[in-house]
Design a protein that fits this description.
Elements lengths: L8 H9 L3 H12 L5 H6 L8 E6 L6 H14 L4 E7 L25 E7 L11 H9 L5 E5 L16 E6 L4 H5 L3 H5 L3 E4 L7 H11 L13 E3 L8 H13 L4 H20 L5 H11 L4 H5 L4
Parallel strand pairs: 1-4, 1-5, 2-3, 2-4, 5-6, 6-7
Helix pairs in contact: 1-2, 2-5, 4-9
InterPro entries: GTPase/Isobutyryl-CoA_mutase, GTPase_ArgK, P-loop_NTPase
Keywords: Chaperone, GTP-binding, Hydrolase, Nucleotide-binding
Protein name: Transporter
């Protein structure tokens, strides 16, 4: 892993603009490891209104990786250049990715129009990598048409993806019937598109109808028509329909108010991280072990 600061950040940026996958990989590592100069580099990145971000989220076992793999195929067939950030669960002890590089996407790793990077959540509770915003900005400096962010399926807290993606796809499976009934409004309302994957399984049609019923204005808070697409990602069934639905959603112009809210969310998140920079789990663990702390509440009052 490259951790030494480059001699010339601007030269690195130029290489990224030219689509050098080696330069992109190196820059992502530099930003992820907070190498000196990275903040100034990010501040100087060009504004990009062209690259569109597709968020794919949903509960574990829904087939998000297989769906992402199939979606990459549609984008490549349409002569699109695509970057993929796969956010994997991480070990609570060493914060490394548990899944590592995605075997299902192996055919794309050497494709010139596809860039794939696996990331660990590193303990982040929202299903995203703690530097996901910064890493996405680096990718937006490269000549990609789309960036796909596939988030770890950790549940309700995944609503974070809605603040980052231009379109959010929530992937479910027929067996998730009871789960959907008990879903909080948040996860239901972040979806721009619902996908019922593994739709060849029993009760898929019933689940599909019930989900559409839940999304009707009489039952759902928004009157916006949310597409529900049936897919069998492992067989590439329904993927063309999903690609078309994503394209329609991306053509809908975001209101200025929404853009400002998303920018405010990003600013809040980045400032929160900056102010918490001096506090790490490792440092807290060292103090707790050294002082044999047993009452966490009295301990944290030191930092108020």
């Amino acid at each position: 892993m490259h951790t030494q600061a480059p001699a010339n950040w601007q030269q690195l940026l130029q290489q990224i603009k030219e689509g050098s996958q080696k330069a992109i990989s190196r820059c992502l590592s530099l930003v992820e490891n907070e190498v000196p100069g990275y903040a100034q580099f990010l501040a100087g990145l060009p504004i990009n209104e062209h690259t569109q971000i597709i968020g794919i989220t949903g509960p574990p076992g829904a087939g998000k990786s297989t769906l992402t793999d199939a979606l990459i195929g549609e984008l490549v067939a349409a002569q699109k250049k695509v970057a993929v950030l796969c956010v994997d669960p991480s070990s609570p002890f060493n914060l490394g990715a548990l899944l590592g590089d995605r075997i299902r996407m192996s055919e794309w790793y050497s494709h010139p129009n596809v860039f794939i990077r696996s990331l660990a959540t590193r303990g982040s509770l929202g299903g995203l990598h703690p530097k996901i915003i910064e890493l996405t900005e680096v990718l937006k400096a490269a000549p990609f048409d789309h960036i796909i962010i596939e988030t770890v399926g950790v549940g309700q807290s995944e609503v974070e993806i809605a603040g980052l993606a231009d379109v959010t796809v929530v992937v479910l499976v027929p067996e998730a019937g009871d789960e959907v009934q008990t879903m909080k409004a948040g996860l239901m309302e972040i979806a721009d598109i619902f996908v019922v994957n593994k739709a060849d399984r029993p009760d898929a049609d019933t689940f599909f109808r019930n989900l559409k019923l839940m999304l009707q204005p009489a039952f759902h808070a928004t009157a916006v028509d949310i597409p529900v697409i049936k897919t069998v990602a492992s067989q590439r069934k329904g993927i063309a329909e999903l690609y078309e639905a994503i394209g329609k959603q991306l053509k809908q112009v975001q209101t200025t108010d929404k853009k400002f809210r998303l920018l405010a969310d990003k600013a809040y998140y980045l400032l929160q991280k900056h102010r918490m920079k001096d506090l790490t789990r490792e440092a807290l663990l060292a103090v707790i072990q050294k002082e044999n702390i047993t009452n966490v509440y009295s301990f944290i009052t030191r930092f108020y």
